[in-house]
Amino acid sequence: MQSFLRVCLIFVSLTVLAACKTDEEKADAFYQSGLSLMEAGDLDRAAIEFLNVFQHDGFHQEARRALADIRLEQGNVPAAYSQYLRLIEQYPDTADVRLILASVAVDINNWDEARRHGEAALALLPDDPRAQAIGAALDYRAATLATDAAGLERSAAQARELLEANPDDDVARRIVIDDILRSDAPLDAMPLIEQAIAANPDSNLYQTLRLRLLVQVQDMDGVGAQLRRMVALFPEEQELAQSLIAWYLTQGDLEGAERYLRELAGDVTAAPEGHLAVVQLIQTTQGSQAAKQELDRLATANDGTPNADIYRSLAAVIRFEEGEQEPAIATFQQILSAAEPNEQTWRIRNTLARLLIAYGDIDAARTQVDTILALDASNVEALKLRAAWSIEADQAPDAILDLRRALGQQPRDAEILTLMAHAHEREGSLALAGERLALAVDVSGSAPAETIRYATFLLRDGRTAAARNVLSDARTANPRSVEVMTALARVLLGEGAWVEAQGIANTLRSLGTPAAQEAATSLQAALLLGQNRVEDSLAFLQGEIDEGNADIDAITQVVQIHLQSGNIETARSYLDQALTDYPADSTLQMLNASLFAISGDFDAAETVFRDLIAAFPQAEAPVLRLYNLLISTDQSEQAVAIVEAAIDQQPAAMNLRWISAGHREERGDIDGAIAIYEEMYAANSNAVMIANNLASLIATHKEDADSIARAATIAKRLRELDAPPFQDTYGWIAYRQQNYQEARTYLEPAAAGLPDDPLVQYHLGMTYAALGEAEKARAQLNRALELAGESTLPQFDLARAKLQELSQ
Fold first, then answer.
1. DSSP state, 1?
2. What is the average pLDDT across 644-665?
3. 678-807 maps to which CATH number?
4. Chain centroid to CA 341: how far?
5. What is the rounded CA–CA span in Å between residue 359 and residue 332?
6. Phi (first) and psi of residue 156, to 5 degrees
7. Fold for the domain defined by 253-376
8. CATH architecture assignment, domain 21-203
9. Helix 654-666 and helix 670-683: axis angle, to 10°?
10. Topology agreement, domain 21-203 and domain 678-807
């Protein structure tokens, strides 16, 4: 018994001693364990031990550095950057960490961070060649943005010296490569690119540059080999696989393309993804019938398995797209009637819902979504569809609830985040909308659609520099995206950044696809025009046309350049020659009519526009041009008649209905105008201008509480928009809801921005009266009546009555 007690006492004393270890001792134990694991090559477990260190010592410098180094070695750049950043926040004078942060920032084109850490590194290590390379990169970037040729030459020369002294300095090498690519001998960059690839084979940037140069020298065998290499390196980039397939197709090797995809797909009973890529190729090269046959073959080979339903449903999708909509929907219903309730069944049912939406049977689509959510309340795709409907119905709070549930399951789903942005925008919360759009860009890896959507949001908010940075990052992530490069080029042109825009034009031209070539031609012409090089622009376009590299758009640009230069006769002569070559082209005929109008030959212009309307009764453009021509020649009745007749042919044409609603409002047919806007809003509730006009008309001309509440719901999205018409609408609705101080906040800038609009002045005057500011109210209402003149709108009778009341 005494021995047993001694053992217990020893055990208890050891436990107490262990419990008495300090945080510092615990942190060091985890750190030493992490070092041992790191030396043994077990980086994952070493990282866990270093993370444990921070539970006891959040300022452990060595552990933080070791963890950051591990993440960088593992290729997890964001995680490494985060750890290095935390380290520099705690120990700001750690020079080598500053260098790492600056180098990574340069690599990912985050120039604000590159400057912050690069300048700090230079201050700490002014003689260090690595810091000097960062400094050269910052100078090179600044010279590029400022189109400073001397600065570019100076910083590039410094980079060459640094690279010669240290051939492994990747920052200096990037500068030199970029400088060579901008020169007249871009192919001289290939040896440096090969060196960079040898040092870092997984570099997307250098592999892409190598591909670009191979395309430029038309080494098609080399292009194919490089694409195969890049597909293996970056399997997640679908565009690469598509480019490789495109390469096979340009070589005329359809069998090679199909063979390549079938090798990737594997056995006929393997996972469907690879076989679906084969189907897509077959559909592109051999047509839908061959694609359906392949899907039928796959369905038969997988009969009795869940994969068979996937292939049958996709064959039905093709039939739907070909116009066999009802049989396709019937196939889906047959598949679902025998399907077990599981994830695949929900996917098929969601696909059916989307087909039903395209078919126009929204109620049936809702039924499918309701069926899914009744059995799986957290189904992400169904929640997204229901949220989209809620947004369209101005039930944004309901949409946000559904989207939060969906986001909890798929936090990196860009579509969910985009829908949340739309919902927040409907609620007038632009800051939240911007955050969601930015996050959508992040989780999508700067995908083109998400990036362009966010950049458009930023540009609308006047944040041009931010939009440029976002698009620049997307260009790095999607080096072959024509859409991203075109969007970035538009921003650069607006800023006068000719050198960077020229670089994009060169890249587009090197891609060799028809879309890229067209974009490059348009951008090059715009570049020359932006620099007032009119003759150079004309010569360039004509050269492209003569060589067969440009289409009708280039001819149109030539005519427009002549017009902008005041050379109407030259424009007419050039266009007449083009019409001789392409007499039936509608684009040239539209330009022909416009040129007649500019020259004052209104009868000839009207004749051409009417001929185009007769030939293309479903086209809006000739109707709008003829309408404007008739209005400008004081033929308003004929103009309205043209629009109304066109609406009979094009009942869904938004621009024509907009004009019709405006004319009804001018005639005092407010109910008729509201009815048109209601139809337009039902068809496109995302259009801010339609929402504004509908809410404004309702708030101005309706008196019942339900109408005012509906106007308020529609107008929520206007709350943070600075445009005077939107401020007037939102402010007047606030007045109608007796929120007079809020009304004043919006109506004062609206009245200042629209000083000649009598209704806007009336709205502000009535608000002043409601706030008891009689003198301001009288001045504002008198101003409204002066502007209104002989208007018979009842609001001005109310203004006179209110003035009489104020005078008493």
1. -
2. 92
3. 1.25.40.10
4. 36
5. 14
6. -65, -40
7. 1.25.40
8. Alpha Horseshoe (1.25)
9. 160
10. yes
Q: What angle do CA 778, 781, 787 make, to 5 degrees?
A: 140
Residue 8 above 60 pLDDT?
A: no
To the nearest 10°, report the CA torsion of 519, 520, 526, 528.
Answer: -170
First-residue to last-residue Cα distance in the chain: 108
- 265: pLDDT confidence band, cut at 50, 70 and 90? confident
Alpha helices in 166-269 (DSSP H): 170-181, 190-199, 204-216, 220-233, 238-250, 254-265
- Residue ranges of domains in the chain: 21-203, 253-376, 551-651, 678-807
| Pick from 291, 273, 274, 292: nearest CA to 282 | 291
Alpha carbon separation from 194 to 113, 177, 206, 223 (Å, rounded): 28, 11, 8, 15
The token pair at 643 is: 């629009």
- CA-based nearest residue to 606, from 595, 617, 593: 593
Q: Tokens 């008198």 appear where?
A: 782
pTM over 0.85: no
Q: How far apart are CA 712 and CA 414, in angstroms?
A: 30
DSSP 787-806: HHTT---HHHHHHHHHHHHH
Q: What is the mean pLDDT of residues 348-368?
A: 93
Tens digits of residue pLDDT in 681-714:
998 898 999 999 999 999 988 989 999 999 999 9
Quote the DSSP letter at residue 619: -
Residues 6 or more apart in contact with residue 545 via CB below 8 angstroms: 554, 555, 558
- Residue-wise pLDDT for 311-349, tens only, equals 899 999 999 988 899 999 999 999 998 888 888 899 999
Q: By mean pLDDT, which of 157-171, 249-263, 358-372, 663-677 is the weakest? A: 249-263
Reading the block at residue 233, the tokens are: 């390196």
Which tokens go with 36? 């041992």
**Domain at 551-651, CATH class:** mainly alpha
3-state secondary structure 461-488: CCCHHHHHHHHHHHHHHCCCCHHHHHHH
In degrees and rounded to multiples of 5, residue 634 shows phi and psi of 60, 40
- In the chain, the amino acid numbered 114 is A
d(Cα 664, Cα 643) in Å, to the nearest integer?
Answer: 12
As a whole number, mean pLDDT of residues 25-30 equals 80
